[in-house]
Amino acid sequence: MVPKIHKRGKRTIGLLYYLYGPGKAEEHIDPHLVASWDHAAPDPGRDAEATYQELQQLLDQPLALLTDAQRARPHVWHLSVRNGPTDRILSDEEWSDIARRMVAAAGIDDPDQGAGCRWVAVRHADDHIHILATLAREDGYRPDLDRDAVRVQAEARLLEQELGLRRLMPGDGTAAQRPTSAEQHKAARQGREHTAREELRETVRRAVAGAQSEEEFFGRLAAAGLLVQTRVAPSGDLLGYKVALPDDRNKDGKPVYFPGARLAPDLSLPRIRERWSADPVPQSDAPVRPLRPTAPATARRGTAAVAWKALLVVEHGEDGLAAAHIAAASEVLDALAKTSAAYTRRELQQAAWAFERASRSHVRAVRGSDRALRQVARDLVRGGPALGRGEDGASTAMAIDMLFFLITAAAHWHARKGHAQQAEAAHQAAEHLRTAYRAAASHPLAALHQRGRRLSRPLLQRQTAVLREAVPLLAEQVLAEEGWYALAATLAEVEAAGQDPAVLLADAADRRELGTAESVSDVLVWRLRRTAGLPSDTADASLANPPSWASPAGTFPGSDHARHMRR
Fold first, then answer.
1. Is the model more confident about 342 or about 389?
2. Which residue from 11, 117, 300, 330 has the fewest beta carbons nearer than 10 Å?
3. Could you tell me the pTM of the whole model?
């Protein structure tokens, strides 16, 4: 159940016309009164003799008891209460009780507190009601509406439990502002998947990811095609900004601008500045090093390494440091989604969209500690789009794998702090990452699997012994997994590179619990390949040192050698 207090209005009659009217898209069906301050209140929806003007005059009568100075301006209070799509359809009697409890909780009309305001509750759809009240009590005083939004939300949580409805999680005031019903109807008319507010929020977030200065940030906004206006003080200092979509216009044909703070609490200019305030100041005369051709893959390998270190901070660091790393992880997700190949991009975008809610809480982030995460976000953006093949595709899988564990750690951190909405958002993001990982990892792991199956029997037996030595408690589980052959091939590469596979494997397994992994062997493959410095692209790795790992004697069996050379 979602109660929403709308912007106050100046005309009681205007809101009545809307509530009893057909709606903007003929969506209002059988508008009628389900509750009011007075059981005898006229109902223009069901009573042919009743008029909107009659009801408006009754609602506004207490305003005459107040002087102009005493009146609330604007004086029309408006609350909608909506159930979820999976909730059962409530009766008029149930909605009537909900309305009475909502106005009592808000401070509009509580029978236990004496005279209240006049109000009506109108139902024009199965799943919601609207409550209109005029802000003047019957005894001539103004109502006390301090924290009315918090109180109606708390009442909604109680009603959900009592009525057997889908139970929502209590918020903490850090969520981004939801689109208004008018914005949603406008998006539907224009055939948009998201409202203008939501599209702008996503675009601004992607522009912030890894940015290091105002110039870079505003340059990215312009490059994304947004209309940008800035607010400048008489001193010349930049105070704020607002953005608009070029094709989002009001009735006068002018662009509809949204200030950053109305998109999300952390997108105001002062909050954005906090992100780079602790970054080192770039030297203007420093030589600019050209990006290497493999920059996208390099950035992804760097992302995996930095995400691992961030995970430790989230799990064991102080709250302020953890909050900063969680916020910066949101930038990394935005950057990865922006630059990844088409077959993983949508799931990564959904992960970034969901995790946006988990990036903010009332725990104040200690900025500066998150510099490494913000830098890899910047590297991802500068590296540009990955093609999704070869090293790019495999390193994407490696990055997603580690980000999954980081986001899961963020979910656990929020749960420990009692941040219910943030924890749920992080869990949703992790599920999208899981799906993206499957798409990114399928080809490189399949290649490793085939190579593992082609290992000679003595070499495969040696890697089995390494597994049992390094992780005795996990060995049987890993051997039963389909991914064992990919891990065996990776262990052989580690050995061929002159490193101790047992030591590295034990370290990889000890780095974090593996209970949330779908495949323990998959996770160990990526951790080993990263820590051992092996290529992510398994096709390239197969030709790195062909004779060194294919058999105990360091030579290929003839048929295996021929197959590798043909690949």
1. 342
2. 11
3. 0.73
